[in-house]
Amino acid sequence: MALMEARGGPRPAPGTLNQLFFDAVSKFNRPDALQAKADGAYRPISHTEVAERVRHAARGLSSLGVRRGDRVAILSENRPEWAIADFACLTVGLTDVPIYPTLPGDQVAYILKDSGAVAIFVSNKAQAEKIREISSQLPALKTVIGFDEIPRLTNMSIAELEKRGTQGENRESIATYREDALTVKPDDLATIIYTSGTTGEPKGVMLSHDNIYSNVEGTRTAIPFDGRDVALSFLPLSHIFERMGGHYLMFATGTSIAYAESIDTVPINMQEVRPTIVLSVPRLYEKMYARILETALTGGYLKKKIFFWARAVAERWANEKLAGKEPGALVAKQYAIAQKLVFSKLKARTGGRLRYFVSGGAPLSPDINKFFFAAGLEILEGYGLTETSPVIAVNTPENFRIGTVGKAIDGVEVKIAADGEILTRGPHVMKGYYNKPEATREMIDPDGWFYTGDIGVLEDGFLAITDRKKDMIVTAGGKNIAPQPLENKVKTNKYIAQAVMLGDKRKFPSMLIVPNFDQLEKWAMKRNIIWTDRAQLLRMPTIQAKIEKEVAKELEGAAHFETPKKIGLLEHDFSIESGELTPTQKVRRRTIDKHYKALIDSLYEEAERAGFTDQHAIA
What we know:
By secondary structure, the protein is an alpha/beta fold. The chain has 22 helices and 27 strands. Strand 6, helix 5 (125-134) and strand 7 (143-146) form a beta-alpha-beta unit. The two termini are 33 Å apart. Residues 613-619 have low confidence and may be disordered.
């Protein structure tokens, strides 16, 4: 039984990613379809060159004997060759399998074995070494193609593959290649994307051409593009958010795609590329917000006073705007001054041309979203999953409400089940999990509704996510706690870098905190606290009390049963390499529970010794 239902606009006509590719090349023909940094500067690659290289790589793949429907993997960081390899696979009817370049060899082996990949593109020597080490486990894998020149570890480079594709090429063969590419059907399998998964082994999500094509069409009508936009690509292309949003959607709208050198160089690359649109997960916005606060608070009395005045003015301006009103003359005048004195500098750090940020992959703190909106930098928060290609709903400039993920895009139906779970149906829902029919049946009911595993509500057509169903904490006293909104509040504090709420089946909730050591150590030095290493610093009662006070301040107003009664401090941030974060920076709670079991147990043992009773748990 559904409590609430919502539907986007009409379903887009079915189509293929090949159709999208050829249409974009003929329509836009920009000199800078793609951009990559080489020898210290960004170099453009035109639509014409992209189309030629895709065709040659595609014909090269055909010459290797791969057949339509075969699986070909891509193990690489974001770069132009990733896009060329992808479109080459699609236009000859292959199914590509993107793999996170951060994955260790054993996980790469699992994906290659499960998918039965017959060939793989690798970016560099380090990735080629990974394949060499696991090659004995991969009898189906016949060909390794390097984006770089990697002698001895690959069968050929992509340059050699493209050269093979030029052999015997003429006007007739070019026409035949295009005709064959357009015989691919909307329901044909385009890609298998293995979920990074916060729990369990990865599952191969089968997405058809139309799954992703319909999502591109539904999103491009929701967010305005003008054919002159520039996007900075840095989220992994092996993730569906960047794959659909930063790759296909940008290509389809004539947006120039500039590849960041790495996640660490994003601030520098933003200045160089001066993007008009940036897609990211909330972690980027959290870090930007923390950096802005730190700059303001360490800039002297006058600078601090100006910043907080500007912030207060911007908040008044934002409140009016978000209520659908025009700010009064005085507020508008003050806001213009605030922009000039403070927020123009923030905009300059993004390159000075940014029209929209887009946020997805995890919930964004409403406080951070509102701060950026007030500063004049709009973050369009959306929502989706790998299994939904991915976008279900997104905020747009016309339909924008902080604290929600917007309205359903065209072709998408959403309903809330009796237990609060979000269900969705439409052309965006996957074909199923590869080699896992039972797992598919568990997620998609006979009427085509996909069970997202997220809890949410609908109000005026706007969808708000409260938490992951599996992340919900139920205390021993029977209290239900949604941890993510509480964690997001705590992470807005300048002394806190990361926060994870715990307490399922326990008497009370607790929280693990990774401090922002830059801020915490400055605070400690001002108070003449002496320490030799971070572990020693975190053991000090003064430091423990400081963090507890900051957490309590951020959670003021939360219900008593939601407030963590114990805080554990960690000296290192969570990482992808340790398995504590997914490649899109989502926390793997089970891994955290396992890695820090001793610390977590000690928090509850300490509480027992202090006489904590069940009465506290149900207070």
